[in-house]
């Protein structure tokens, strides 16, 4: 029973599960909860991603407001100092809301140019790690009322920024042309201050609307988490309950099957064996060990316990039969001699069948062992007795014909062959009437078939015939 698979032993997966007793059964029970936990973790991760995006919008709004305030401050300074340095600082500050506007306008399109959106948010000084969340929140929730209100205020603010850039361009052109008198510049300053007056409540409203949108988003995500958890947990409990019920039914069926198996083993005269090819472990039934003269604990449950008791002359035939069955699928049906505890060798008839994986690899093999020593001895004695009977029949002076219970000829001694003209070889398998007919000496009629008379009356029949 020893193959390469036995010597290789357990694979890494089998060795790993050795440390997890009952892991397969545990997994069958808890897998619904594992799926629920995984789904809740995915939902929590998505919730955190959305809330992080909402936070990024709040930070972006702060950068937008600061950029707008600084731009107006430096533009007013520029109207007073006419310094290009102040105008440069204005351009640097106004680039923040202008960059955000570029991103917003592009995201409003059905098929946005995302590199352009990314560049716009970068110009708006948003952190690169926050940009994916900014895009996701805008594209996914643009049509929701609270998000739409925020974006509408953003668009309105951008229109004011466009007005500011128009004023700045006109002011810069006026100063560059040399018209720097107070009467020439003052109207621009008044327009800037008026625009600042209109922008301040707008930015305040944007901040409060964005805060309200963030709170609503958090509340909705909380409801979604609770609703999904409240739905999945009962489902998981129900699925686990069904799995436990099925497991209990399977265990009851298995227990009943084991009881039937044990009854069959106890009432059978055969010894049973079950060989785990991967691990090398072998189960020998109590009757198997008893047939060899051992008690339950006196014989090991391994391949060596079998091989060490196999007759040396039978080992080649055994190995050939095992390999033929495992490698080529041939039948495993062989008679071999095994040494008993008393030291004598007895004949046993072995039969077995392998259990294979889907790929065709044998993983287990089980079968039965029957003691055939007495049958062999009886057959040998019957053969010897038959030989002696045939010698006796061949030497007597009477003609003797033997048949089976069906009346078919089996043997003719030499005298019968001479009398009938039939040889044993040519007459074997023919009916008695086919080779000889007996005639009543008195009536000269054919007598009844003596074989039928013997079988019918169950006694010795004497027939006076020629």
Brief overview:
The chain has three domains: 23-240; 269-371, Beta-Lactamase (2-Layer Sandwich), CATH 3.30.450; 378-457, Beta-Lactamase. Helices cover 65% and strands 10% of the residues.
Task: Give structural attributes.
single chain, 466 residues, alpha+beta, Beta-Lactamase, 3 domains, five-stranded antiparallel beta sheet, two-stranded antiparallel ribbon, 16 helices, 65% helix, 10% strand
What integer is the average pLDDT?
A: 82
Question: Strand arrangement, largest sheet?
Answer: 2-1-5-4-3
Beta-strand percentage range: 5-15%
Spell out the helices and strands N to C.
HHHHHHHHEEHHHEEEHEEHHHH
> How far apart, in Å, are the first and last alpha carbons?
65 Å
Low-confidence regions: 2-22
Q: How much is the radius of gyration in Å?
A: 51 Å
Number of beta strands: 7
Shape: rod-shaped
Count of DSSP-assigned helices: 16
How many structural domains does the protein architecture include?
A: 3
Percent helix: 55-70%
By secondary-structure content and strand pairing, the structural class works out as alpha+beta
* Most strands sheet: 5 strands, antiparallel
Architecture overview:
This protein starts with a helix and ends in a 9-residue tail after the last helix. The chain folds into three domains: 23-240; 269-371, PAS domain (Beta-Lactamase, 2-Layer Sandwich); 378-457, Beta-Lactamase. A five-stranded antiparallel β-sheet has the order 2-1-5-4-3, sandwiched between helices. A two-stranded antiparallel sheet has the order 6-7. It has helices at 4-8, 12-18, 23-81, 84-107, 114-123, 131-141, 145-176, 182-267, 286-291, 303-307, 315-328, 373-395, 414-420, 424-427, 432-435, 450-457, and strands at 271-276, 282-284, 332-339, 345-356, 362-371, 401-403, 409-412. It has 466 residues and is α+β, with helices and mostly antiparallel strands. Helix content is 65%, strand content 10%. The model is unreliable at 2-22 (pLDDT under 50).
């Amino acid at each position: 029973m020893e193959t390469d698979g036995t010597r290789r032993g357990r694979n890494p997966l089998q060795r790993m599960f050795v440390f997890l007793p009952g892991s397969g059964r545990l997994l069958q029970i808890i897998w619904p909860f594992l799926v629920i936990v995984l789904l809740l973790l995915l939902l929590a991760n998505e919730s955190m991603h959305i809330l992080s995006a909402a936070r990024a919008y709040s930070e972006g709004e702060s950068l937008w407001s600061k950029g707008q305030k600084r731009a107006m401050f430096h533009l007013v300074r520029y109207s007073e100092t006419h310094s290009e340095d102040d105008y440069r600082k204005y351009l640097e500050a106004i680039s923040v809301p202008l960059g955000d506007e570029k991103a917003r306008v592009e995201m409003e399109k059905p098929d946005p140019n995302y590199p352009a959106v990314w560049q716009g948010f970068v110009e708006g000084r948003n952190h690169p790690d926050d940009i994916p969340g900014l895009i996701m929140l805008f594209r996914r929730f643009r049509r929701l009322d609270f998000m739409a209100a925020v974006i509408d205020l953003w668009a309105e603010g951008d229109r004011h920024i466009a007005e500011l850039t128009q004023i700045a361009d006109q002011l810069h052109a006026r100063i560059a042309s040399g018209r720097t008198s107070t009467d020439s510049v003052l109207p621009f300053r008044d327009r800037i201050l008026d625009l600042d007056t209109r922008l301040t409540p707008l930015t305040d409203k944007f901040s409060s609307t964005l805060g309200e949108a963030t709170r609503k988003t958090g509340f909705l995500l909380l409801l979604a988490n609770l609703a999904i958890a409240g739905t999945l947990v009962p489902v998981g409990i129900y699925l686990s309950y069904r799995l436990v019920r099925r497991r209990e039914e399977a265990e009851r069926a298995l227990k009943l099957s084991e009881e039937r198996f044990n009854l069959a083993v106890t009432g059978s005269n055969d010894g049973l064996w079950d060989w785990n090819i991967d691990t090398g472990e072998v189960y020998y039934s109590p009757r198997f060990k008893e047939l060899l003269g051992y008690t339950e604990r006196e014989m090991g449950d391994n391949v060596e316990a079998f091989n060490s008791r196999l007759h040396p002359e039978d080992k080649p035939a055994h190995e050939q039969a095992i390999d033929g069955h495992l490698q080529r699928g041939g039948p495993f049906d062989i008679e071999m001699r095994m040494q008993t505890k008393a030291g004598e060798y007895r004949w046993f008839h072995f039969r077995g069948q392998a259990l294979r994986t889907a790929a065709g690899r044998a993983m287990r093999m089980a079968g039965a062992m029957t003691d055939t020593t007495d049958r062999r001895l009886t057959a040998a004695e019957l053969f010897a007795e038959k030989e002696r009977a045939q010698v006796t029949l061949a030497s007597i002076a009477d003609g003797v014909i033997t048949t089976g219970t069906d009346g078919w000829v089996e043997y003719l001694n030499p005298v019968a062959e001479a009398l009938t003209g039939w040889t044993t070889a040519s007459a074997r398998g023919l009916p008695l009437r086919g080779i000889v007919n007996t005639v009543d000496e008195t009536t000269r009629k054919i007598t009844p078939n003596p074989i039928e008379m013997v079988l019918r009356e169950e006694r010795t029949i004497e027939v006076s015939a020629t």
